[in-house]
Design a protein that fits this description.
Helix content is 28%, strand content 23%. It is α+β, with helices and mostly antiparallel strands. Strands 1-2-3-4-5 form a 5-stranded mixed beta sheet. Strand 2 and strand 3 form a beta hairpin. It is globular and about 40 Å long. The protein starts with 14 loop residues before the first helix and ends in a 24-residue tail after the last helix.
Length: 176
Amino acid sequence: MSNPQALFSASLIPQEVSRSLPDGFTIRPLERGDYSKGFFDCLGVLTWIGDVSEADFIERYDEMAEATGTYYFTVIEHEHRIVGTGALVVEKKFIHQRGKCGHIEEISIAREHQKKGLGLKMIQALDSIAVNLGCYKNILNCGARNEPFYVKCGYGNSGIEMSHYFEEERDGYHRG
């Protein structure tokens, strides 16, 4: 049965990935009520969040939900807490026969649950979602220290990431 508060249909997440999680862990779409389940605590492992209220969260969630076919934010839950996050953002292109390219974003696993294979399971879920949606590839950006993890997930270096920031300069943690 579909959850009307879920960002997308859970049927896009392959059962093989769900079944392969450690006992007590579930993987599912982001839900409108996830603010109070430690969602931002988990994302804070990755980078600076800022001061985001529940109303701010719901506003952004609703924007993502309205952009049908674009945002596939996925979470791993354990004991009613969000302990893993990851997003697939689908870009519709003119090239590659009007193909779709997936962008992997915001992969974060709570510190106390790292080294359990959850990051790999998140990547596998997002890759499968992309395939199910007809994406011809997924791409992601990462720092050098995370490259070995993504290589283990099947990703390879395919170029150089370039950025042009439009905000004041900050340290690496506070910069998007």
